[in-house]
Structures are given as structure tokens and as C-alpha cells.
Design brief:
Layout: H1 2-72, H2 74-94, E1 115-121, E2 128-135, E3 141-151, E4 159-160, E5 170-172, E6 177-183, E7 195-205, E8 217-227, E9 232-233, H3 240-243
Parallel strand pairs: 4-9
Antiparallel strand pairs: 1-2, 2-6, 3-5, 3-7, 6-9, 7-8
Helix pairs in contact: 1-2
């Protein structure tokens, strides 16, 4: 009887020990699982938080850029200065300073009001004289085409050497001169209706070339000049040699 009770007690003790060991093993397993869970939680959370940080970064940079654009940064100051400088420079380009110079194309015609004319004898060619016009005004003028001459009481102007027409209009600055050659009579005596006179009136042409324009000039002659039907005149020339080749 005593041995039976001892075996029962030993079996009970063994079962209790087994149960205790099972409980301890379960507890250990639960703790290991919890530890594993605790350890994996940050690893899982880290990726979920990273996109949030990266999302915020561009927003901050964007805000900084916007502030610079609004004028808080150096770039804004440079942009404002450039824009201001361009705005100030543009009116100056549209409104050039008036210097008072007589600039631009010359259209004023030389005439008896702003010029002086004289007639002088030359030794060659024979029966030729030189007509000189000098700008006595304060502005440049153009000696257009050729002069109209009237010796004495002549009713018609003399013919013109058309081959003497220059390539460009002769422009005279203040004090400058132009020249025209005058053939007063034929060298071989073939001219008709000759007469002598000490009176000469010179008329000028305008830009249109349709006849005399502006005041004429009375040219004083110290010696009588003989003219006949072959009387002819050249176009205004820049050089006296060019005026005496016809």
C-alpha cells in the first residue's frame, strides 16, 4: 500500500514538473515572439516614414525658391536691377538728344539769297569764262543742275553742255564754292547775233529742276563781255578744271 502511494505521488510530481516545463517553454516562446515582433516593428516603420521626409524636402526647397523670386534673395535683386535698367534705357533710345547740328540730307537750294556769284575771264579755252558760286549762308546748300544766264537784254537762256552733267548733286557747305564754264562765243566766228554787255543776271534751279527758284543774283562786270548765238554753259561742278573742259 505504501509503495502504491509513493508511485502515485511520484507520477503526480512528474506530471506537475512536465506541466511546469511546458508552461515555461510556452512563456519563453511568447517572449521570443514578442521580442521578434518588437525588433521587426522599427524596420517596418522606417520605410513608411521615409517617403514622408522625402516629400517634405522638395516642399521646403520650393518655398525657398519662391522666397528668392519674391525679392528676398540676391537673384531677385539682380533681376529687379536689370529690369529697371532696361526700362530707363528705352526712353533714351526713343528720344535722342537734340544736339542742334545741321544734320540729315541737304535740300536747301543755293540761290541769290544765300550765295554770291562772280564771273572771271580765263586764258584757255578761248572765248570761255568761269562762273563761281560761293555759299555765304550758315547752312549747306545744293547747287542744282545748271545756272540760267541772261546777258544784257537777252530773252532766252543759253544752251547747256549736257555731257557736263555730274553724277551727283553738288553740295556746298558754308564758304564752299562750285563752278560752271561759260562759252561766250564761237572761236571760228560761226555764231550770229553777237553783242557786248556789262550786265549779267544768274538764276538758280530748285530740287525739282522745273525752272528758276529763289532770288536771282546780279553779277557785276568790270569789262564788257561779247556773246553770240553759240553762248553755252555747263552744269555746276565741284572743281574749276571740270568746268572748263567743254
Amino acid at each position: 500500500m505504501r509503495n502504491r502511494n509513493f508511485r502515485r505521488t511520484a507520477r503526480t510530481s512528474a506530471l506537475g514538473t512536465a506541466a511546469l516545463l511546458a508552461a515555461l517553454s510556452l512563456t519563453a516562446c511568447q517572449e521570443d515572439g514578442q521580442a521578434a515582433a518588437d525588433t521587426s516593428t522599427p524596420a517596418t516603420a522606417a520605410p513608411s516614414e521615409q517617403p514622408s521626409d522625402s516629400t517634405k524636402a522638395p516642399a521646403d526647397k520650393g518655398n525657398g525658391k519662391d522666397k528668392g523670386t519674391n525679392g528676398s534673395g540676391a537673384d531677385s535683386g539682380s533681376s529687379s536691377g536689370s529690369s529697371s535698367g532696361s526700362a530707363d534705357a528705352e526712353p533714351a533710345a526713343k528720344q535722342p538728344k537734340d544736339t542742334g547740328d545741321d544734320s540729315g540730307p541737304v535740300t536747301l537750294a543755293c540761290d541769290g539769297g544765300n550765295s554770291k556769284v562772280k564771273l572771271t575771264a580765263v586764258t584757255r579755252p578761248v572765248n570761255h569764262m568761269l562762273l563761281t558760286v560761293t555759299n555765304t549762308g550758315s547752312k549747306a546748300c545744293n547747287a542744282y543742275y545748271h545756272p540760267f544766264l541772261r546777258f544784257g537784254e537777252a530773252q532766252a537762256v543759253p544752251r547747256t553742255f549736257e555731257e557736263s552733267k555730274p553724277q551727283a548733286v553738288v553740295t556746298l557747305g558754308p564758304g564752299e564754292s562750285a563752278y560752271a564754264g561759260v562759252m561766250t562765243a564761237s572761236a571760228d566766228g560761226s555764231g550770229t547775233g553777237g553783242y557786248s554787255t556789262k550786265e549779267l543776271t544768274v538764276s538758280f534751279q530748285g530740287r525739282e529742276g522745273s525752272g528758276s527758284s529763289g532770288p536771282s543774283s546780279d553779277v557785276p562786270l568790270t569789262k564788257a563781255v561779247f556773246v553770240d548765238s553759240t553762248l553755252a554753259v555747263t552744269y555746276w561742278q565741284t572743281g574749276l578744271d571740270d568746268a572748263l573742259v567743254y
